[in-house]
Amino acid sequence: MRHVGPLLLAALLAGRLPAEETPADAGRGAALAAQVCGTCHVLPKPSELDKSTWRNGALPLMHRRLGLDAFRRDDPEQRAILDDFDTIARHYVAAAPEQIVETNLPPIREGLPGFTVLRTTYRPTNQMASLVHVDARSHRILVGNQETRTLDVVSPEGRMLSTLPVESPPIHVARVGDDLYVTLIWSLSPHEARRGRVLRMRLTDDRLTEVTEVLSGLPRPVHTSVAELGDGTGRSLFVSGFGFLTGQLTRWSLGESGPGSPQVLLDLPGTLGTDVRDWTGDGRPDVLAWVAQGREGIVLFRNGGPGKFTEERLVDYSPTWGSAGFDVADFDGDGRPDLVTANGDTGEYASCVRPYHGVRILLNRPGLKFEEALHFPLHGAYAVRAADFDGDGDLDIAATSFFPDYRGRMEESFVLLENRGGMRFEARTFESVPSGRWMTLDAGDMDGDGDTDIVLGAGNWVAFPVLKDLAARWRADPVSVMILRNDRRPSAPRP
């Protein structure tokens, strides 16, 4: 999640942004933006946000991140930098539309044929489920509890079976054989403290046992991939450290004597996760990273042999896109792994609607060229999973929105996109979808019956307000985890 602390005030720009841009400023503002902003990330277009969002949200945030709020106008050098920023800001506000109007949004039908919606009895007071993970091997659900700082084992019916106290909220689980690697974020709110950890444990008789610390002192880790690279170093952990202004993507080789010094692949904040496999077809596993801050997009770290990785940017996005979740699956059946992505994180400031937010399928063409084959508009799209949910032989998509348009399309908090062939998808949701603000999502066979179920975790209380009656409903009738049980095959009895 991005910055969800106190909202930045428009007063940062008060008295320094005239209502209108002068003709002399117009060309200079665009040129300065290309020169300054475009060196770090894709240059956003003024049309990507409306005037109010630029003035009250995006520009004050950038002012703060650049450290300009500490600059003084009585210092000539600092005043010149502030003046340049003001020129850029005036250009964006002047060129932006007064309002962004969306038309022809695809319908979202109510009802999930083949699924039973189970409201669980699991800890309804946990209003920040930092993690939901379907462990298909044990047919259990693991839930990270922000309130109690625990990792909980939950049955397919939603009954808590056991709990493990941990130092900070669990954010990710990776299973490798008998081992579970659990990433602890330290704090869901962005921070610079190096307090994150990775633990290794096992799930035996519905209890988490043999807990050992693998890594510590990590910069706000949000995801850990575990893989063997075939170079004789044993297991490697690729840890995505999101941070706030700082962070890293690092590789740790475990070896027989435990982890040594990390190999830094990306010395920037914002990596949300990685997928380690042979992306290039040369027989060596590569690291594909999904980056969500600064220079957003998809980055490949090409494996060049023991300890050698070459960075290659595959896709770049504007920072207004709000990269969030991703999953890997072969949508067109050509044997190459494709991507399904969610772009919709607006956790940094209150925002207008953004028509380019949503769920996308990026087909992997020869030469690792990703081609957009689907854009399903979804305000605030956040988490996404691909699977054949309806059992018809093609891939469907489950997605959540953490920042939906509560006034206009509350139903987009969760959608199941059913594949109708030819890259056509039909969106469905369930009647009680407003029961929570669905932050976390996972899919897998939780009950051992051979089909793919869905689990949602709530994250109801963040900095940005929702409708009063909705907030009152969450307080009066809380739910933290919702199970969408796939009933296309009869459930096998569980002990």
Overview of the structural elements:
The protein has helices at residues 23-36, 51-65, 76-95, 468-476, and strands spanning 108-110, 115-119, 129-135, 140-145, 150-154, 160-165, 170-176, 179-184, 196-204, 207-218, 221-228, 235-241, 249-253, 263-266, 271-277, 286-291, 297-303, 309-316, 323-329, 338-343, 358-365, 369-377, 381-387, 396-401, 414-419, 425-429, 438-444, 453-458, 481-486. The relative contact order is 0.13. Helix 1 (23-36) crosses helix 3 (76-95) and helix 2 (51-65) packs antiparallel against helix 3 (76-95). Helix content is 12%, strand content 39%. Residues 1-19 and 490-495 have low confidence and may be disordered. A five-stranded mixed β-sheet has the order 1-26-25-24-23, with no helix packed on it. It is globular. With 495 residues, it is mainly β.
Give the key terms:
495 residues, 4 helices
- Strand line-up in the sheet with most strands: 1-26-25-24-23
Structural class: mainly beta
> Helical residue percent?
10-25%
Taken as a percent bin, the fraction of beta residues is: 35-45%
Radius of gyration: 23 Å
Give the overall form. Answer: globular
Main beta sheet: 5 strands, mixed
Low-confidence blocks of residues: 1-19, 490-495
Q: Report mean pLDDT, rounded to a whole number.
A: 89
Cα(first) to Cα(last) distance is 37 Å
By DSSP (H or I, 4+ residues per run), the number of helices equals 4
How many β-strand stretches? 29
